[in-house]
């Protein structure tokens, strides 16, 4: 049993309206069925008689404009359109001819509307085009054996290259370097390691002859360094002997008061015989210091010359 809460209040007027709508639909269906005869009635045929929607309706004046355009085309006629097409084709052929050969007739050059200009492209070919299509920057002339001389290792690089041409040139350069590496002895290549090099890192040349010269120069510098190191060590040893001699003299003077005169004289004689002369040591030290300064200057000059050679090679 339905509750009073869910009950729908239906008035007599609503029932009458519903019956009227049902009767109207039945009459329309009977009319469509009578018009169709034995053919089945589809939903599309039932919607034909209804009012078209907003997206189906055409804008106002579209049909009239289409009629006017068709009337104008009928007035112009097919012969005039064909004549215009032939004239345009003839004009296009004339433009193509002028682009290839140029304008030789002065009268034609004054009458023509398109301003053609002649220029040389990046491949050395003469071209005629509109001024708007001509490159603004003049292209350099192509190299020839008569008017250009390239240095050793230099190659002519065109100013305008596509991405494919540039990649092909890089590939050829890489193959050339790879073949040269295979021919030459293999050495350490610092470019294949991603790390920070130390302070004493030295980049040798890839040229084998120049590499040997650099190694010979480094060996000479190494030998000079060892000589300087041994010289300084000799100076230190001599100074140490001088200090020991002075300390021995001081100790001998202190013992002079306690020991006998004969023993003190014998001690002084022993010290003077065993230790070198102080004057000789001083002169030797002076000569060593002068020689050391000369060696330092020679090493500095050698380093500067090697760096200058490396910069010039690059």
UniProtKB/TrEMBL annotation:
Keywords, sorted A to Z: Coiled coil
Annotated CCDC174 alpha/beta GRSR domain residues: 119-136
Biased segments, Low complexity type: 263-272
Protein name, UniProt field: 6431_t:CDS:1
Region named Disordered: 31-56, 131-154, 255-280
Domain of life, per lineage: Eukaryota
Claim: Coiled coil is one of the keywords in the record: yes
GO cellular component: nucleus
Keyword Coiled coil attached: yes
Organism encoding this protein: Ambispora gerdemannii
Cited InterPro entries: CCDC174-like, CCDC174_GRSR
């Amino acid at each position: 049993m339905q509750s009073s809460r869910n009950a729908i209040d239906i008035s007599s007027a609503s029932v009458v309206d519903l019956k009227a709508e049902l009767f109207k639909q039945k009459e329309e269906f009977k009319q469509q069925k009578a018009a169709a005869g034995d053919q089945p009635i589809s939903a599309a045929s039932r919607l034909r008689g209804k009012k078209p929607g907003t997206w189906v309706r055409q804008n106002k004046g579209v049909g009239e404009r289409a009629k006017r355009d068709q009337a104008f085309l009928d007035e112009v006629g097919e012969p005039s359109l064909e004549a215009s097409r032939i004239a345009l084709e003839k004009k296009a052929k004339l433009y193509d001819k002028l682009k290839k050969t140029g304008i030789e007739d002065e009268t034609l050059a004054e009458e023509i509307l398109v301003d053609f200009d002649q220029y040389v492209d990046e491949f050395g070919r003469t071209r005629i085009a509109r001024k708007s299509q001509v490159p603004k920057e003049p292209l350099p002339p192509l190299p020839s054996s008569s008017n250009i001389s390239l240095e050793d290792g230099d190659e002519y690089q065109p100013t305008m290259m596509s991405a494919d041409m540039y990649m092909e040139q890089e590939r050829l350069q890489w193959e050339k370097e790879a073949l040269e590496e295979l021919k030459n002895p293999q050495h350490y290549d610092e470019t294949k390691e991603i790390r920070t090099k130390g302070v004493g890192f030295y980049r040798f040349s890839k040229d084998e002859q120049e590499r040997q010269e650099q190694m010979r120069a480094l060996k000479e510098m190494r030998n000079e360094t060892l000589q300087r190191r041994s010289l300084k060590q000799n100076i230190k040893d001599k100074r140490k002997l001088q200090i020991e001699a002075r300390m021995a003299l001081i100790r001998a003077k202190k013992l002079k008061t306690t020991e006998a005169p004969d023993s003190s004289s014998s001690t002084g004689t022993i010290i003077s015989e065993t230790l070198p002369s102080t004057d000789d040591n001083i002169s030797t030290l002076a000569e060593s210091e002068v020689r050391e300064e000369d060696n330092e200057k020679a090493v500095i000059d050698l380093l500067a010359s090697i760096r200058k050679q490396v910069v010039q090679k690059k």
